[in-house]
Design a protein that fits this description.
five-stranded parallel sheet, 9 helices, alpha/beta, 5 strands, single chain, binds adenosine monophosphate, 13% strand
């Protein structure tokens, strides 16, 4: 109980300094296998952002043996969206620990609740949203060839993840579209071609557009 209170106070403090820093945040969204991680690695090299993948942070939390690990593992196996307080805490911690002030947040927000909770807790609004648009057929091919030993890269879980993406994540993209914040990229092309379009977004004055 006492520890919980101290932890919460520390968390609030870390969060206040995070919101005061007003970091630049770009959300990177797209279906599973659309190439978010691949393109983020290239953006990091060229534009000095720090890449935070919600999926990678959750997988690291499982490996660390955290008390939430089993719950997270079961949800990932089912392609379900992990409760936002878990994901938001991991993102906040990673942002606070990084010395940087520019972040690519990949695979988040995954639903409207994620989006509203993040804005509410951190008071951070994204500068813009990169949306990797790719056909399901191509995404399925890529994920089945990914070979990273992921428990969710099997055909049964992939189909569930596609459904979650369509039902829960596309509405988030629509929300930002109505605010003029979405930069849509045709992600069905080869990696270097996709990156040419990505570079255009980051080098144009669109980067800071409202
Ligand atoms: P995401 O992070 O969106 O799930 P990844 O970046 O992990 O997607 O890409 C999924 C797989 O597809 C990886 O094996 C990656 O090497 C491959 N890949 C990524 N982008 C492309 C592309 N433009 N064309 C072909 N394969 C790609
Ligand atoms: P990814 O690595 O982005 O493909 O994510 C893999 C899985 O992690 C998803 O299918 C979800 O189960 C979980 N996950 C990733 N990002 C989030 C998020 N923002 N909120 C909740 N669950 C997530």
């Amino acid at each position: 109980m006492f520890m919980g209170t101290v932890g919460e106070a520390a968390n609030k403090e870390a969060n206040r300094s995070l919101s005061e820093k007003k970091p630049t945040v770009v959300f990177v969204l797209g279906g599973p296998g659309s190439g978010k991680g691949t393109q983020c690695a290239k953006i990091v090299q060229h534009f000095g952002y720090t890449h935070l993948s919600a999926g990678d942070l959750l997988r690291a939390e499982i490996s660390s043996g955290s008390e939430n690990g089993t719950m997270i593992q079961n949800m990932i196996k089912e392609g379900k969206i992990v409760p936002s307080e878990v994901t938001i805490k991991l993102l906040q911690r990673a942002m606070t620990e990084s010395g940087n002030d520019k972040f690519l947040i990949d695979g988040f927000p995954r639903n409207e609740e994620n989006r509203a909770a993040f804005e509410d807790v951190t008071k951070i609004e994204p500068a813009f949203v990169l949306f990797f648009d790719c056909s399901e057929e191509e995404m399925e091919r890529r994920v089945l060839n990914r070979n990273q030993g992921r428990e969710d890269d099997n055909i049964e879980t992939i189909r569930k993840r596609f459904k979650v993406f369509l039902d829960s994540s596309l509405p988030v993209i629509d929300h930002y579209k109505s605010r003029g914040k979405v930069r849509k990229i045709d992600a069905g092309r080869p990696v270097e071609e996709v990156f040419e379009s990505v570079k255009d977004v980051f080098t144009s004055k669109n980067e800071k557009a409202d």
